[in-house]
Amino acid sequence: MTLRKIATIGHPVLRERARELTVAELADERTQRFIDDLIETMRDASGAGLAATQVFEPIRVCVIEVGDNPRYPYKPKIPLTVLVNPVIEPLSDEKFSNYEGCLSVPNLRGRVTRHAEIRVRALDRHGAPIDRVVRGISAGTYQHEVDHLDGKIFVDRVEDKTSLATWDHFERYQKEAFVAYVKEIVAKYGE
Ligand code: NI
To answer: Which region holds residue 56: left if phi is over 0, alpha if psi is between -120 and 50, else beta?
Structure first.
């Protein structure tokens, strides 16, 4: 496995709409190796997710995993998930406010409005269909990653610019209130 270089904001690859993969391309050994690299790179950087565009491959693949994550210790856990050609559909008008960060936007966090209940359809790395409902904080993580495949970065969705903060200042000034809010969201949606 190889750790891939992560593109940072301003690089045009992050603004591309990634293309769909065919089932044959997905089965190809090179794609499978790429998925291993994507997982390894996400874990190495302590990301909660990573999209192919972030490592300079404009194909519709992203990975998500939340364990004991030092960047996001308050996030509910998500087992390793590989999404190929994902499509997200909001299931209700309910929204919540998520404080996000991104490996492609070093040292910046900001508040983003996300759908609280979504349906996610995709293929897994073996081409088997995934069709699941995701809610709450975890739904925010899914939307953040799929946004990358459409050339969108969380900062595009930050409406209240006064919420922007470095990671140190988030820890110092915003974290306590946000963690309390996360507990409410988790209590409401169970994830
Ligand atoms: Ni990101």
So the answer is: left
Look at phi and psi of residue 151 and say left if phi exceeds 0, alpha if psi is from -120 to 50, else beta. Answer: left
Q: Catalytic annotation on 89?
A: no
Ligand 1 centre to CA of 24 (Å) is: 27
Given a contact cutoff of 8 angstroms between Cβ atoms, the answer to whether 118 and 143 are in contact is yes
CA of 117 to the centre of ligand 1 (A): 20
| pLDDT tens series, the chain, 191 aa | 899 999 999 999 999 999 999 999 999 999 999 999 999 999 999 999 999 999 999 999 999 999 988 888 888 899 999 999 999 999 999 999 999 999 999 999 999 999 999 999 999 999 999 999 999 999 999 999 999 999 999 999 999 999 999 999 999 999 999 999 999 999 999 88
Distance of alpha carbon 111 from alpha carbon 75, whole angstroms: 15
How close is the Cα of 123 to the center of ligand 1, in Å?
A: 20
Q: What angle do CA 169, 173, 176 make, to 5 degrees?
A: 120
Residues 100, 145, 171, 184: which is the catalytic one?
145
CA distance 81 to 152: 20
Report the predicted TM-score, pTM, of the whole model to 2 decimal places: 0.96
Are 39 and 135 contacting, i.e. CB atoms less than 8 angstroms apart? Answer: no
